[in-house]
Design a protein that fits this description.
six-stranded parallel beta sheet, single chain, 41% helix, Undecaprenyl pyrophosphate synthetase, alpha/beta
């Protein structure tokens, strides 16, 4: 099997990484940004076409306000500090998620970097921010309902590909491999539609400790799996 073209990562364990070192959770999030830079570079070297990372979920608003405020500030600062290097590497950047609750300045930063990187082709980096898989499906359903009400859609003709076009990013293809760091064995409301047939790879490593070799190991593990998509291989009639 070839290298997966579309990989998604749940970057979990920043806070626990910091706590085990008697550091603040903020220090863990800062270290997580450094890891992301390394993994983006490695993904491009491995010829991955699309990398989607879970940066901030719709549920993360429930965290202490000080941590939420820090994460919002860290995102804005990271965009400002890293945009030129990402552009130089030919990375196209897209943001997935709801804009509500985000500041006008942060939304403007998102729009700016998307426009600035739109023609880049080496790797697409999708940053899921204020994102939830269920919220994405609900928002898509609302758009479909609006189009139906306005006589722009025939429900009887609605197919899976049609539904996909109502999701946050029409360019995001079906995810082939989902990697989760931090030891938990769940998707946590991440890319529920796009990951329907994704291979899942879990590691005990916290995100700040995840490195290029770990990404390579996940890709090699993917290559050794048999993907059937509900079908059978020859000789598996009794499976």
């Amino acid at each position: 099997m070839t290298t997966p073209k579309n990989i998604a990562i749940i970057m979990d364990g920043n806070g626990r990484w910091a706590e085990k070192r008697n550091k603040s959770r903020s220090a863990g999030h800062k270290e997580g940004v450094k890891t992301l830079k390394k993994i983006v570079k490695a993904a491009a070297n491995f010829k991955v076409e699309s990398l989607t990372v879970y940066a901030f979920s719709t549920e993360n608003w429930k965290r202490p306000k000080t941590e939420v405020d820090f994460l919002l500030t860290l995102m804005k600062r990271t965009i400002s500090n890293e945009i030129e290097e990402l552009l130089d590497r030919g990375v196209k950047i897209k943001f997935l998620g709801r804009k509500e609750n985000l500041s006008k300045n942060l939304i403007e930063e998102f729009n700016y970097i998307e426009e600035k990187s739109a023609e880049n082709k080496n790797l697409t980096l999708n940053i899921a921010f204020n994102y939830g898989g269920r919220a994405e499906i609900i928002d898509a359903a609302k758009k479909i309902a609006a189009d139906y009400k306005n006589n722009q859609l025939e429900l009887d003709n609605l197919q899976e590909n049609d539904f996909s076009s109502y999701l946050y990013s029409q360019d995001l293809k079906n995810v082939e491999l989902v990697i989760r760091t931090g030891g938990d064995l769940r998707l946590s409301n991440f890319l529920l539609w796009q990951s329907a047939y994704a291979e899942l790879y879990f590691t005990e490593k916290f995100w700040p400790d995840f490195n290029e070799d770990d990404l390579k190991n996940a890709i090699e593990d993917f290559k050794n799996r048999e993907r059937r998509f509900g079908g059978l291989k020859d000789g598996d009639a009794n499976a």
